[in-house]
Amino acid sequence: MRPIQMVDLKQQYLKIKGDVDAAIHNVLDSTAFINGKPVNEFAENLAKYLGSKHVVPCANGTDALQVAMMALGLEPGDEVITPSFTYVATTEVVALLRLNPVFVEVDTKTFCIDPSAIEKAITPKTKAIVPVHLYGQAAPMEEIMQIAEKHNLFVIEDNAQAIGSEYIFSNGAKKKTGAIGLIGTTSFFPSKNLGCYGDGGAIFTNDDTLAVKLKMIANHGQQKRYYHEMIGCNSRLDTMQAAVLDIKLKKLDDYINARRKAADYYDRAFSDHPKITVPFRAKYSRHVFHQYTLILENTDRGKLNEHLATKNIPSMIYYPVPAHRQQMFAKFGGSSYNLPATDWLTERVISLPMHTELDEEQLEFISSAVLNFINH
Ligand SMILES: *Cc1c(COP(=O)(O)O)cnc(C)c1O
Q1: Tens of pLDDT along 102-126?
Q2: How far apart are CA 342 and CA 328, in angstroms?
Q3: What domains does the chain contain, in order, with CATH numbers?
Q4: Is the pTM of this model over 0.90?
Q5: Ligand 1 centre from 3 Cα, in Å?
Q6: Residue whose CA is closest, atom 5 of ligand 1?
Q7: How far is ligand 1, taken at its centre, from the CA of residue 272, in Å?
Q8: Most ligand 1 atoms within 8 A of CB, residue of 80, 82, 87, 235 to mutate
């Protein structure tokens, strides 16, 4: 059996090695390392894939969130509602821009922001909502967009974990996640569902004026070289990463199907177990399984992690500390929050290996090891 990894980038690379190596050599030949042709080509292809009018490439998923928030003209002290149960980038950027993060609960079923918690957290200072499509499960965007419209709030979708997921509205209309809110952001970190071979990110919008502003901000606030109209930053997707991403974008739907197939296997192994809750698959979307995350009850999660490690099976806790309990947010009143659903999940989740290259032998080995531990 091949060694089991959380993400098997090597096996995935070997299957596209010819194309990737040729594309990288083309970039070397051109020496157009920054803003080479592949950057625009990839941005256009991604825009088409997402059904979003504009894609602005940038350096990473954290920058994507930062540039998005900078473009909205928010003032220090304005409030931005985010889930506490997310990766640190979502919430950190809010504080970095001197805005106030307001942490709200997630739904224990979807792991995503709870719309009723958003409504309760809205104050006259609230300006934006940042739902996170966690683990590849879309947040309930239809309800979120209705709340945003009612209270005149911006919506920035943190789509770093769910690129390619589709949202189905109650009228049957379908949209890709990231293309629903005013702005969507993503990360091309190597382990993401669409990952490059370094750092990368992108911002999406259907708004023409906003697209111009996003591009400017990611490029030192300039449209015309050396004429800087506003404070920006330096955030670029380099040409080599774009060339790799353009190849992998063509495979994204196959990659998603491979992840879903692995998730189906795990579901069959675990779904009847009284101590295990398998990932919920919301009817309104297509789960793209960035992570395969179980909720365990009456189980020593740390010991399970150790038991799996003795069999060379990695497992991870995403994330061991929610935002409201992070030291970095002490000044923002983090410890005064009461988020029992978030704490409950934080103590019980565990993520198993999930990637495009898992075969049945590995899946069988992993699920047996989990069940053996839990049953004994
Ligand atoms: C990975 C990730 C980010 C940040 O992406 P980087 O490219 O690492 O900066 C932001 N939000 C979420 C939910 C992520 O998973």
Answers
A1: 999 999 999 999 999 999 999 999 9
A2: 18
A3: 9-103+111-249 (3.40.640.10), 252-375 (3.90.1150.10)
A4: yes
A5: 26
A6: 61
A7: 33
A8: 87
